[in-house]
Amino acid sequence: MKSKRNPYGLWTLAWPIFIEVLLQTLLGTADTVMVSRISDDAVAVVGLSAQLFSALTTLFMTISGGAGILIAQKLGSRRSEDARAIAIMGLTVSGGIGLAISLVLYTQAANLAGLLNVSAELLPLWKVYVSYFGGGMVLTALIAALSTAIRNTGNTKTPMYIGIAMNVIHIAMNYALIFGKFGLPEWGLFGVTVSGNVSRLIAVLLLFYVFIYAFDRKVGFKDLFLFKPKLFKEIVHIGWPLGVNMSGWVFSQLAIYTFIAMLGAAELATKTYMNTLESFCFMLGYAISLAVQIQVAHLFGAGKTREAYVGAYRALAIGLGLATANALLLLAAGRYLLGLFSGNEEILTLGASLLALNLLLQPGKVLNMALNNALNAVGDTRYTMGIALFSLAVVATAGSYVLGIQAGWGLTGIYCCMIADEWVRGIFVLRRWRGQKYLRRAEAASRRPESLASETGLSL
């Protein structure tokens, strides 16, 4: 029975995701260090434009995210042709949206600078980076669609390897083109845009090759023109709440960072350093939550609702244990680790107190991410969107302003609101998952006459 390894096992899915995200974080840090050698202005431009790019990526992530969930569901219900068609439409539509974004960024960089109040001294660098790196946003869209489709077939290793290769190429080319090494021109920030576009293009080509053979039937050139309105409607139905949810988080973070900037440079620096330390806790939770989404979607599609229900709790227990252990390690070594970034006693003291609060933040974050993704996996995306928008707006954003700014609690008050936001959302999604609304609906469908069950694809 177990001679063939299950590609949808939690650990099988999770560890490549974790390794990929970990190395991306480490290489991203190296990338930032190299850009800082150009100038502080270059770092400021890259940081500010990253917020703009993050907001725009929600447009195509709406499609690729919805397509990914449906691919796992359809494969679970043995509807491979539908999964294949959904993957193709997710790729072409995401690519089309990415191309439109690229054209806007390439042609409207100066106008966007005016909207975002980019200072005059940053404008020349802004135009270079947003026009050329942002102009390659279509490549980011294609990478998202291709890697999401491949992961949801149960193959999380290949996107990991390709992601690692892309980042290594990017760092190597950065070094050569920023500083003019190995006989290449010294292009500074323009060199970063060239290395970014070349490395992304290589990743797209490799991922597309894997994508061609990812399903039972090879994907040909003519298949790229395939469009099935009924299946695309399913993608949008699941995907648009994911996009709205993601947008809510992005704008909430932008607002909170504005509040932190009002507190002063020390608080802003402390939060920046805390983000770096906390990212190692977050990566564990993120890998588990993305793996459980793929696993639950596949089980749900196969009609194995009991296994899906229990599997989400098993993943939650593992994620809670790992995140809590990591938070304890950070607390024990926190002051030393913060000292690697800064010798400012104010920052060290404030950061150490926040690491204690991190013990409450990380379990809430894992609870929220794991069960939020489990609900998304069964199609309950509107509920998770509604809860997220409410909590992000009222608890996280408004609460941060009231406690952090008006009440004078500072960064500690903002952290308390971040903790409350994660736990509020976590408790609501826990109650929803315990209610089993979509799971019971699927069980009811499986008990209908055979003809109706076969139409829904939920037969046990």
Outline the fold blueprint:
Blueprint: H1 10-36, H2 40-76, H3 80-107, H4 109-115, H5 123-132, H6 137-151, H7 157-179, H8 189-212, H9 229-263, H10 265-301, H11 305-339, H12 345-377, H13 381-406, H14 410-435, H15 437-446, H16 450-456
Keywords: Cell membrane, Membrane, Transmembrane, Transmembrane helix, Transport
Protein name: MATE family efflux transporter
Membrane topology: Multi-pass membrane protein
Folded structure, characterized:
It holds the Pfam family MatE. It is a multi-pass membrane protein. Its main location: membrane. The chain crosses the membrane at residues 12-30, 50-72, 84-106, 126-146, 158-178, 198-215, 235-263, 283-303, 315-338, 350-371, 383-403. It is found in: Cell membrane. By secondary structure, the protein is an all-alpha fold. The protein folds into 2 domains: 7-227, no CATH class; 239-460, no CATH class. Helices cover 83% and strands 0% of the residues. It is built from 16 helices and no strands. The chain has helices spanning 10-36, 40-76, 80-107, 109-115, 123-132, 137-151, 157-179, 189-212, 229-263, 265-301, 305-339, 345-377, 381-406, 410-435, 437-446, 450-456. Helix 2 packs antiparallel against helix 9, helix 5 packs parallel to helix 8 (189-212) and helix 7 packs antiparallel against helix 8 (189-212). It is globular. The relative contact order is 0.11.
